[in-house]
């Protein structure tokens, strides 16, 4: 380990993450037309320097200086131009004409590249890819529509990073209008898009297309992407469908959660009709960003010290001031309002209610292999 690596390790500096696709080849392709004028400029500088050394007996530095401001046609007066020989004068005129020609070609190339607009668009996309590469545990939200606007608004309020992907050209205007911090104009189901969206470090994917076929293709592509890249964990995929008949179909294909706006609307209306006093319960309790209480489900790792301990023996409530209101066993069985004698099993899920800081502390305690020191004072 060299000294620089040791300093980085001591200061906890991490190398800036790079995207899987950097667009370097596309960027070099845009710069390729500049190769010819650059080569011509170097050749003219070499020819001019050699010419002034042999014709006017200049030193190397004076010859380079004379060639530079002659080639760029900025004028004379710095050196002994008034004493040039006839050969030197002809050589200088030729050098001025060559310089003017080369710079005219270079300006024409610059104007053509700028006119096409591909260079600037590649630069913008490249910056976006490097920005996305810094995301961790983010969501990839596919297809822009009214649901996407609402979903991204809630994600932004909860400080959850996300990337919006849509193949239409209007995505640039939508991103500016609805304040999407990161977005891609790509086909969501392609492997290149998944690499650009840095799906390997994402928490999951949300597909909100109005077309069931698009959702099916995307779900299948993501699950195939997992297998091909040997990823250690499965992505959490959320999808939406208009027809209730397609809910089971998408779940069988690999979606973890399938939301039907029709079903949700029906459930909400019926709940409002049966319990008018509960109308705004979810908004007040779960969706408000300024609410001190939060509800979250945490997985108990296999190595956790709480495995096969009774719930009351963990003393989570006393330490973190959070309450366990439900336990989902590994086999999917849900235990509501568990008593203190219920065992905490491996890879079960604890449904917690409390402050966000208390929930974060609970997650940290559950991930420990040994009994925490805090229990000594309980």
Question: Main attributes?
Answer:
16 helices; Rossmann fold; alpha/beta; six-stranded parallel β-sheet; Helix Hairpins; Alpha-Beta Plaits; single chain; 378 residues; four-stranded antiparallel β-sheet
Structure, explained:
It is a single chain. With 378 residues, the chain is of the alpha/beta class. It has 3 domains: 26-118, Helix Hairpins (Orthogonal Bundle), CATH 1.10.287.70; 136-259, Rossmann fold, CATH 3.40.50; 292-377, Alpha-Beta Plaits. The chain has helices at residues 3-11, 24-31, 35-55, 60-71, 86-116, 118-133, 146-157, 171-177, 191-196, 212-228, 247-253, 261-274, 281-287, 311-314, 316-320, 356-366, and strands at 139-142, 162-165, 183-184, 204-207, 236-240, 257-259, 294-299, 309-310, 323-328, 334-336, 343-344, 349-354. The strands form 3 sheets. It has a 6-stranded parallel β-sheet with strand order 3-2-1-4-5-6, with helices on both faces. Helix 2 packs antiparallel against helix 6 (118-133), helix 3 (35-55) packs across helix 4 (60-71) and helix 3 (35-55) runs antiparallel to helix 5 (86-116). It is elongated, with a radius of gyration of 33 Å. The two termini are 45 Å apart.
């Amino acid at each position: 380990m060299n000294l620089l690596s040791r300093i980085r390790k001591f200061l906890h500096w991490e190398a800036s993450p790079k995207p899987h696709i950097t667009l370097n080849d596309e960027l070099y392709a845009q710069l390729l037309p500049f190769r010819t004028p650059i080569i011509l400029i170097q050749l003219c500088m070499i020819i001019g320097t050699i010419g002034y050394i042999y014709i006017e007996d200049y030193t190397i530095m004076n010859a380079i200086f004379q060639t530079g401001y002659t080639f760029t046609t900025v004028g004379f007066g710095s050196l002994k131009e008034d004493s040039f020989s006839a050969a030197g004068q002809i050589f200088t005129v030729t050098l001025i004409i060559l310089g003017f020609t080369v710079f005219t070609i270079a300006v024409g190339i610059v104007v053509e590249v700028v006119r096409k607009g591909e260079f600037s668009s590649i630069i913008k996309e490249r910056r976006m890819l490097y920005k996305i590469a810094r995301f961790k545990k983010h969501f990839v939200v596919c297809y822009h529509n009214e649901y996407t606007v609402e979903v991204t608004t809630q994600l932004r309020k909860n400080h959850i990073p996300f990337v919006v992907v849509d193949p239409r050209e209007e995505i640039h205007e939508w991103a500016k209008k609805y304040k999407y911090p990161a977005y891609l104009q790509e086909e969501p189901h392609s492997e290149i898009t998944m690499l650009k969206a840095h799906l390997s470090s994402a928490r999951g994917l949300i597909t909100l297309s109005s077309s069931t076929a698009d959702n099916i293709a995307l779900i299948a592509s993501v699950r195939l992407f997992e297998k091909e890249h040997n990823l250690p964990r499965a992505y959490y995929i959320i999808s939406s469908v208009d027809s209730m008949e397609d809910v089971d179909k998408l779940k069988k294909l690999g979606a973890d959660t399938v939301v039907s706006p029709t079903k949700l609307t029906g459930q909400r209306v019926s709940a409002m009709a049966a319990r008018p006093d509960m109308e705004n319960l979810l908004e007040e309790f779960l969706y408000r960003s300024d609410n001190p209480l939060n509800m979250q489900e945490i997985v108990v790792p296999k190595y956790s010290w709480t495995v096969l301990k009774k719930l009351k023996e963990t003393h989570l409530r006393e330490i973190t001031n959070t309450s366990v209101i439900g336990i989902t066993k590994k086999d999917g069985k849900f235990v509501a309002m568990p008593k203190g004698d219920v065992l905490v099993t491996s890879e079960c899920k604890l449904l917690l209610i409390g402050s966000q800081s208390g929930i974060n502390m609970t997650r940290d305690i559950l991930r420990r292999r040994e009994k925490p020191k805090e229990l000594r004072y309980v």
